[in-house]
Specification:
24 helices; five-stranded antiparallel β-sheet; alpha+beta; about 50% helix
């Protein structure tokens, strides 16, 4: 329906899935206080945590299996599920919130984390520990009052996790406290093999049932929600519902033909003259034509699409019914002509010579009828009239062309949903409260375009293109350009949301720096992972050797250790002792030897220093920015065009060829050429 398998966007979508893993499945919850107030209230924060835990606790159960969120969720670093929410300042943990609440510190902790989301709330933690009552102790998971999420990532994309905030909030974080909505996202694994997604689909359908109940019963929030399977299921429901009107239309047309051909005259001859059999057979021939057409195409492997089921039956019926009327009318007229006109004419001429005079008068009248048109044609032959007609026609044509090119393009998502679908309310909430859209990835790949087959990433000339924090980094390095695109001042880039942008090379340098708490190896040279919220473990970990000797200056990273160190970085969880964990920040953005980075869990062997790690070389990586919310389809199309232009400009400026990818591009590539295609077809 949207794109051919040979198109650029489809090929890039498939290739992205091969080298990075398919874009994750996402579920989203939007919570809007019913009283219209802002979110910076203790009772509102507490209820938001409860509702999000309701979603997170959904479990699908059958006789054969039990599926929980923990079984399908994205765990980039082997830690907790990836749940992007501003309430992760409390780790979405009700026990944490209630502990702060008991001592009246929950709102202060929330605002402190908003201003500094990458660190622990040390000052407040000291205050909290001093205020502890007898018998109270901090839970081990909040020993340092963390602001980081349960999966180690900082919640600093405020315009993504909050909605309905005032203008200017991106430059004045205090204004985010006046936001009118929470926007939470749950990320689950996605696979190219659809069979592997069955568990996620079952869980998502259970999640939809649960959230419908929550939305109906919640007295604090208006609850809007979405699952990855939502659009597919709702479109299927709309398509199934559409078969009833199709069948009803065909039945009504049989009646209409029977009555219409008889001019709705009820008499003794009705069943003879009504052509019921002709109408029934005609409509059935249309049904057979539609069925055989669809069947033949499906026999050749053409997939059945929504537009086929919605358009083809009605279009065929409309044309077919017209043809039935025309054919029967023509046959009736021909029969009357053969039966009456010829005998009557000759009998009349034989017995009534006056009939010849009547025929002559008729011919003369018809001739006189052409006098008017002849006068019009004579006036149209005048030069001035010709010029006026030509100019008017030309002006109308040009205006029509201009109007056609200025038409809004796209097919609104709401149009494909049933009128009573929960997705209608969700889309309406998106238009009002969502400030950002899906991520946009600018991808660098070895061997693409002019790019070399391998990058010497510890060479200063290459580093200068891909870093932004050191003196060696170029003014037009790609991370600097990404930051300029996201945080522009002149508003020429209108479809990238302001916010934090990351440079993996700079964070990699921070991770391996011997002066940081990030990279540690045991006596065997195996990487010692970061664990959050455990003071004892952190203390013990500090006694382990640093990955690089303290005498090493970074950059550059030693070539012999590059891949082992990068493999540690790419799967490391960020924590309070180290905010550079690449697994938390850059999940799904690296490819080694043209394969995705493996997902780390408790059974994954530790990476050993001086080994090859997860492969021989880094073959692709991406820089992520966040798109705008794009409330209309035209905005999506404009965003696609703008990002393509940005990738082309960066390629020309840096000499590094880049391609750009986002989840929605396959739906909008056809609109890049739709105007030219229309002209060609016309």
């Amino acid at each position: 329906l949207w794109v051919s398998t040979s198109s650029t966007s489809y090929q890039q979508r498939q290739h992205y899935g091969e080298i990075f893993n398919p874009f994750y499945r996402s579920e989203q919850v939007i919570l809007v206080p019913k009283d219209g107030g802002d979110i910076y209230r203790s009772s509102i924060l507490k209820e938001a945590i409860r509702v999000q835990n309701v979603a997170a606790d959904v479990t699908y159960t059958s006789d054969e299996e039990t599926i929980a969120l923990d079984d399908i969720c994205w765990k980039a670093t082997g830690t907790g599920c990836t749940v992007n929410s501003i309430t992760q300042y409390f780790q979405n943990n009700m026990e944490h919130f209630e502990f702060y609440e008991k001592y009246g510190l929950e709102m202060e902790h929330f605002s402190n984390c908003l201003y500094s989301p990458t660190t622990s709330d040390v000052a407040l933690c000291t205050e909290l520990k001093n205020a502890l009552e007898d018998g109270d102790s901090l839970p081990s998971t909040m020993s340092d009052c963390p602001c980081l999420s349960t999966f180690g990532s900082p919640m600093n994309l405020y315009n993504t996790y909050l909605g309905g905030f005032p203008d200017g909030a991106e430059s004045n974080y205090t204004l985010f406290l006046e936001s009118k909505a929470f926007v939470s996202s749950y990320l689950n694994y996605n696979y190219a093999d659809d069979d592997k997604n069955d568990a996620a689909i079952k869980w998502e359908r259970e999640y939809i049932k649960t959230m419908k109940v929550e939305a109906a019963s919640n007295t604090v929030f208006d609850v809007y929600f979405y699952a990855e399977i939502s659009v597919n299921d709702e479109v299927d429901a709309e398509s199934s519902n559409g078969m009833g009107p199709v069948a009803l239309s065909y039945c009504l047309m049989i009646i209409y033909i029977s009555l219409g051909i008889n001019r709705i005259k009820f008499s003794r001859q009705f069943f003879i003259s009504s052509k019921i059999v002709a109408g029934f057979c005609g409509v059935m021939s249309i049904v057979c034509g539609v069925a055989s057409t669809i069947g033949i195409y499906m026999w050749f492997g053409v997939k059945l699409q929504l537009i086929i089921m919605e358009v083809v039956p009605f279009l065929s019926l409309a044309i077919g019914v017209d043809n039935i009327f025309l054919i029967i009318h023509a046959m009736t007229e021909k029969e009357d002509q053969m039966r009456r006109e010829q005998p009557n004419l000759f009998i009349g001429l034989e017995h009534n010579p006056k009939a010849i005079e009547e025929i002559t008068s008729t011919i003369l009248s018809e001739s006189l009828a052409y006098i008017g048109p002849s006068i019009f044609m004579a006036s149209a032959a005048e030069s001035i009239v010709k010029l006026i007609v030509l100019l008017a026609f030309l002006a109308w044509t040009l205006w029509s062309i201009y109007s056609m090119e200025s038409l809004d393009q796209g097919l609104p998502q709401k149009e494909a949903m049933p009128s009573d679908s929960y997705m209608i309310e969700y889309f309406n909430a998106l238009d009002v409260y969502l400030a950002t859209g899906v991520p946009v990835y600018f991808i660098i790949e070895t061997g693409y375009g002019r790019n070399p087959d391998t990058w010497s990433l510890n060479d200063e000339s290459v580093e200068s293109i891909f870093c932004k924090s050191k003196d060696i980094c170029g003014t037009y390095s790609i991370p600097n350009v990404m930051n300029a695109l996201a945080n522009h001042g002149d508003k020429t880039v209108t479809h990238i949301s302001p916010g934090t942008t990351y440079s993996w090379m700079d964070d990699f340098w921070g991770f391996v720096n011997p002066d940081s708490e990030c990279c540690r190896v045991d006596s065997e040279g195996d990487y010692v992972p970061i664990e959050t919220g455990n003071d004892t473990y952190t203390t013990l970990r500090s006694d382990d050797d640093t990955c690089l000797a303290t005498s090493v200056t970074i950059p550059p990273v030693p070539e012999t250790q590059y891949m082992s160190l990068f493999s540690m970085f790419a799967t490391a969880s960020a924590g309070t002792s180290c905010s550079y964990g690449g697994g938390s920040i850059y999940r799904g953005q690296f490819s080694i030897d043209t394969e995705p980075i493996p997902t780390v869990n408790s059974s994954t062997p530790a990476v050993r220093l001086n080994s090859s790690g997860y492969g021989d070389e880094i073959t692709a990586w991406s820089y992520m920015v966040t798109g705008t919310s794009n409330p209309t389809q035209q905005a999506y199309i404009d965003s696609y065009k703008q990002n393509l232009a940005a990738a082309e400009w960066i390629s020309e400026k840096t000499g590094v060829d880049i391609w750009v990818y986002s989840l929605t591009y396959v739906y909008f590539e056809q609109y890049l050429t739709v105007i030219d295609d229309a002209y060609k077809l016309i």
